[in-house]
Structures are given as C-alpha cells and as structure tokens.
Design brief:
heterodimer; A: mainly alpha; ABC transporter involved in vitamin B12 uptake, BtuC; 14 helices; globular; B: 10 strands
Chain lengths: ~350, ~250
C-alpha cells in the first residue's frame, strides 16, 4: 500500500489556492465606485499588454489605478500574513505578529522620519522610507525581544504582548509628535499612518514583489525549521536545528517584509494574526502547508478588506488599516481566550 | 564515546554543575542519579548545547562545540524532560522531525530512509495507532513515547534520556526500558540517562554517577556507586531499608 505522505500541499490543493487568489483579484479589479464588467477588464488588460494606449476611461481606471493597487495590496497582504505565520512558529506563540509586537509601529516611525527629513536615496524614490522602515522594524524586534527576554526567559505570550503594546504606544506617541510638527503634510501623513493603499503604483507592487521573492522565499525554505521551533526550541536544538541561525534569519526576513509593507501602505495591523490562525484551522500547523496557505490567504484577505474600504462608504474611502484592526482585535480576543483555556 | 571533563555550569552566582567529569564508554548505560536539584538535567542541557559551560565535552575525542548542530544530532540523540508542542502537530509530523539532521538545510527531502525509519520508530514505541493523532490530545505517556520515537527515528549513536520513565505507566516503563536495553546491544552505542526511580537505575544501569549539589559524589560500576553509605550521604536517609520495607508489602 503506497500512501501519500507528503507534508506539503498536493497539486490540486495548490490549484485551488491559485484559483481563489485569481478570482478575488478579478473581483477586486472589476468592483469599485465605477462598475466595470470582467469582459471589459480583460480587454483593457490585454490591450495594455499588447502595448496599445488606453481608449476608454474605464480602461484607464483599470490599468492606471485599480490594477496596480490590487497587485500592491495582494503582495502586501501575502507578506504580512507570511510574517505572522513565521513569527508565530518561531516564538511558539499564536499571538505573535508585527502589530501585536509593535514591529509595525516601529517600522512606521522609521518611514515617517525618512518622509519628514527627506531621506531619499538618489535615483530610488521609494528606497529611503523603505530602508528606514526595515531598519526600524529590525531594531524594534530586537529591542522588544530583548526586553521580553530580560523579563522572562520563556518568551511567554503575556510578556510579549505586554511589551509589544507598550512599545507600540511609545512609537505611536513619537509618531504623533512628529506629525504635529509637520504642518502642511499633516493630513496625508495621518492618513498614511492609518494604513491605506490609495495611490499605489506599479513601482510599489514591483518593490514588494522583489522583497517578497527574496525574503519570503527564504522564509518558505525554512518550513521544517519553523516546525521544529513550533514544537519547541529545546526540541529543535536536540534534533540538530541551528537554532541561532534560524532565529536571526527569520527575524531579518520578517523585518524586511514588514518594513516594506509599512513604507508602502502604512500600518496595517492584524493581517498576520488573523490569516495564519484561519489557515492553521484549515490546513494544520505544519509550516509546509501553513506558509503557502498564509501567503495566498493573506493576499485574498487584504484584497477583500481593501475592496470593502474603498466601496462601503463610497465615495469616501476608509483607511484599510482601520478595517483590518477592527476585524483583528475581535479575533485577537477570541484567540487569546482559546489559548488561555487550553493551558 | 562521550568524555565529560571538568564541566561547570553557572547561572549567575549559582553553580548548578560543579566540576563534573566522567566517561561514557561504548556499550554502557550510565545512570545519572541524585536528588532534585543535583544538576543532572543541567548537565544534559550542557551536552545538548542549551547552556554554556566551562570545561570540555568530547565526542570521540572531538570537542562537541566544534560540531555543527546537525552533525551533533546525527551522533547524539537527546530526549528532554519536558516536551509539549505549541501547536496541534500530528504524532507522525513530530516523529519525522527526528530525521531533520539527516537532510538539514534549505533543499530538504534527500533522506531515502526517512519513511522507513519513522514507521519503525512508531512501531517500536507502540505509537503506530496514534500516527495521525493530534499531539495536544495525547496523555503524558503517549507524548513521552512520541518524543522517544522521534529520538529513535533520529538514529543516533549515543542516546541521552532525561527522565525517560516520566509519565509512563508500568507496562510502558518495562517496554521502553527493555527496548533501550535491546538497542544498546548493537556495537558502537551508549546510553546516558537521568533516572529518579532507583529501582529502574539498579535494574538497567551498567554504570552510575551519583550527583548532589552539582558535584559528582561517586562514579563507577552501578554496584559500586549505589552503596548504602553513598545513598545515605546523598539522600539523607537509609535507602536500602526503605526499599526492603516497600518490597516486603508485596510478599504473600
């Protein structure tokens, strides 16, 4: 009897994930303040690919506005969710996430400083805030984990959340302080800190794609090591995992991904908390499935949230970060109570 | 196979293991015995690389710290005292992790023996029926047997077991200890274990190191170490008398 013992997804399951992803994407490109039929959408995309200039207003909306935005949103959602899954595995803690640990706020502070001081790298308009956000994300992660470790060596849920929240408040306070003195930029900066993808361009999508391909790829390659950590760090060491190297690699990858997301869309909380949790319920805790599932799930989730954000109160647009935080905080309470009961 | 030389472990001002030396030779089942807080588990942590130590631990003459983690894990398998996965992994997934050191790194899967080893480890520990069970629903004994299966799947030369009898009912105590004894019969193998139950130590150990307050009080063949005088000194009670008195209740 030959049984299928693979721990990763089977081709059919991958196909389903891809189909769900594509369907969501088409939906999000078609729906908006101006309704556009799928047929028209495809025609516009085909024309653009063939190099023809846009003929109608609708194709300009699709090619110039919606498609770059939806692509950026999908990639950012995937990245945030992948980071959540990775950190939750590494720290053996289902509540770890860029937002609950204060990493997103730290990254946002970095990006804000870059925006205000006009820190730009020559020739690369996006690089300044992105690099600062990544550096601040990494710095925040190290600071938070260092503080937690000094408090209790087991890196328990409660300590991480507590320090994370406090750090988050600290970073937010500093941000508010900076924004207060920013005069004319105040409104746009405030909107950015709440998390929004309005005005995303292909350049944003390309940046996120590049970072995701490199650092997300590395994370996906560490599925077995993350499994070992999710079982327990001591066990990981005993079975021969290079514990220190995996920790550093994972934290650097997560910082790069979160930092890039924040520099593009501001702080979009709880995506990395909600999505991996749902994926874990559906496909189990094994990171060989959990990481790809979180990747697809994160993009679908954030695309839908972004769609809701720009259509619910149309023509007024909500910051998508507000929406994810609304959903996420309720979720957080549910997970917190459930894990509390399990112990 | 394993040479522990003047190993000292300090936590701040507290010395958990104080200048302990002994040798684990081929074919030996060495029992680390002593009361709570004697430093037995800390010593095992030192071998696993979990705490830093002074002194040296040599595996076949090589400093253990010079081996890569995966290299070390292919030679030395360690069963920790407390194991509880953070998430609902299946028994099979946890046992399969034992094969990690055989194909570590980025591009994995180059381990032709993997499934065979996992199957036989599950079989040996009586966990085949639980193969797809969720780890978080298992009893303490079943969890212990799963991690024992993981260490068997790892297929090391030296087995280091911290309280292997933990949570095991009598049937599985006998089963697992006989299994380890059987495993040890192959050449080139050795076992080091922490055991609280002195009966188990006497029954299965070939050698022993008696520890107290981080120091090794006595070491050598099991019968030389487990003398009434040594035990009296460490446990502060007449162990022999207590054991006989307990056993007498079983006589018809």
């Amino acid at each position: 009897m030959k049984r299928n013992r693979t721990e990763s997804f089977r081709p059919l399951e991958l196909l389903l994930l891809a189909a769900a992803f594509l369907a969501t994407m088409i939906l999000c490109v078609c729906v908006g303040s101006v309704g556009i039929t799928p047929g028209e959408t495809f025609r516009a995309i085909a024309d653009a690919v063939a190099g023809k200039t846009a003929e109608s207003v609708n194709s300009t909306i699709i090619i110039g506005v919606r498609l770059p935005r939806v692509l950026t949103v999908a990639l950012c959602g995937a990245a945030l969710s992948l980071c959540g899954a990775g950190m939750q595995g590494l720290l053996r803690n289902p509540l770890a996430d860029g937002s609950t640990m204060g990493v997103s706020s730290g990254a946002a502070l970095g990006a804000l400083i870059a925006l205000l001081t006009g820190f730009y790298l020559p020739g690369l308009p996006l690089a300044g805030p992105t690099v600062m956000a990544i550096l601040f994300a990494l710095g925040s992660l190290l600071l938070i984990l260092g503080l937690v470790f000094a408090l209790d060596h087991s890196l328990s849920t409660h300590s991480i959340i507590l320090i994370g929240v406090i750090f988050s408040m600290f970073a937010s306070a500093l941000m508010s302080l900076l924004i207060t003195f920013s005069h004319e930029k105040m409104k746009s900066l405030t909107f950015w800190t709440m998390g929004s993808f309005s005005g995303s361009t292909y350049r944003h999508a390309l940046l996120m794609l590049g970072v995701l391909a490199v650092f997300g790829g590395i994370l996906l390659g560490h599925a077995r090591e993350l499994n070992a950590f999710a079982v327990g760090e001591q066990n990981a060491r005993n079975i021969g995992v290079n514990v220190k190297r995996v920790k550093i690699t994972t934290l650097v990858c997560c910082s790069a991904l979160i930092g890039t997301c924040v520099s593009i869309g501001g702080t979009i909380g709880f995506v990395g908390l909600v999505v991996p949790h749902i994926c874990r319920m559906l496909s189990g805790p094994n990171h060989r499935r959990l990481l790809p599932a979180s990747l697809a799930g994160g993009s679908i989730f954030l695309m839908l949230c972004d769609l809701a954000a720009r259509t619910i109160l149309s023509p007024v647009e909500l910051p998508v970060g507000v929406l994810t935080s609304l959903i996420g905080s309720v979720f957080f309470v549910v997970i917190f109570y459930r894990t509390g009961k399990a112990r | 196979m394993l040479d522990i030389g003047h190993v000292t472990v300090r936590y701040g001002n507290f010395t958990a293991v104080d200048d302990v030396s002994f040798t684990l030779g081929e074919g030996m089942w060495l029992m680390l015995v002593g009361p709570n807080g004697a430093g037995k588990s800390t010593l095992i942590e030192a071998v696993s690389g979990g705490v830093s130590y002074d002194g040296e631990i040599l595996y076949k003459g090589k400093d253990l710290r010079s081996l890569k983690p995966a290299q070390r894990a292919r030679e030395i398998g360690i069963l920790a005292q407390r194991n509880l996965p953070g998430y609902a992994f299946t028994v099979e997934e946890v046992v399969r992790l034992g094969r990690y050191a055989r194909s570590p790194g980025f591009f994995s899967g180059a381990d032709p023996e993997q499934e065979e080893r996992v199957d036989s480890a599950l079989e040996l520990t009586g966990m085949t029926a639980f193969r797809h069970a969720d780890m978080l629903t298992l009893s303490g004994g079943e969890t212990q047997r799963t991690f024992l299966a993981q260490v068997f799947a790892q297929d090391p030369r030296v087995l280091i077991l911290d309280e292997p009898a933990n949570h095991l009912d009598l049937k599985y105590q006998q089963h697992i200890f006989s299994l380890i004894q059987q495993w040890l019969k192959e050449p080139g193998r050795a076992v080091l274990s922490v055991v609280h139950d002195l009966n188990l130590a006497m029954r299965f150990g070939t050698h022993a190191v008696l520890m107290d307050h981080g120091k090794s009080i006595s070491k050598g063949a099991i019968s030389e170490v487990m003398t009434p005088e040594n035990l009296q000194q460490v446990y502060g009670m007449n162990v022999y008398e207590w054991m006989r008195e307990m056993l007498s209740r079983w006589q018809e």
